[in-house]
Amino acid sequence: MSSQSDSLYRIQDSDIEKAGLVMADAFSNDPIWKRILEGCSLKQRSIWFQNPVRFCMKYGHAMATSPEIEGFIGWLPGEFSQMTFGRMLKSGISGSSRKIGWRPMFRMMPLRVFETDRKKHMQDIPYIYVMIVGVSPKFQGQGFGGKLLRGVIKESEKRGVPVYLETSTEKNAAMYNHFGFKTLAEINLPKLNLPQWEMLREPE
Fold it and tell me: Which of 100, 114, 122, 161 has its CA 20 to 30 A from that of 41?
């Protein structure tokens, strides 16, 4: 399944700012995040994407392709997939809205459907939730995305639990299909009117 070259780098506190910048770059053309972060500066978008990095550091795994952080993946046990206010406080991200403004928070309201759907699909089954995964555009097409996915798949196989994620483009859904993910549902996000694929990969 993997080799030494597939080993991922665990994000350190000193890497958080760079990881946020890499994710802001990676998601600059993502349909959902373009809509939610419309009008935000690069610095604001970087701060926004530091949030899932910090959250995954606290409650799961925050991993990069290498210390250079060409790409990043954050995953969590399913029971920590929801960013509650208490968990945000404990992971040190509750104050970011003051730096970014409240508008993106309000624009995120339609994404609550993901929490409802995850509970419906997974019920009480243990699983790994991929909160975020992306590669800087200048490094895309060089195998870094596959390296990140193999990392979480390795964890899934070791624990014997499935991996769950959401993605917002048909191209990404096809890529995840290549790694063994199956589409559980294709939905249209309310208010944002954007498609979304909810996907699952069972351990082999």
Answer: 114
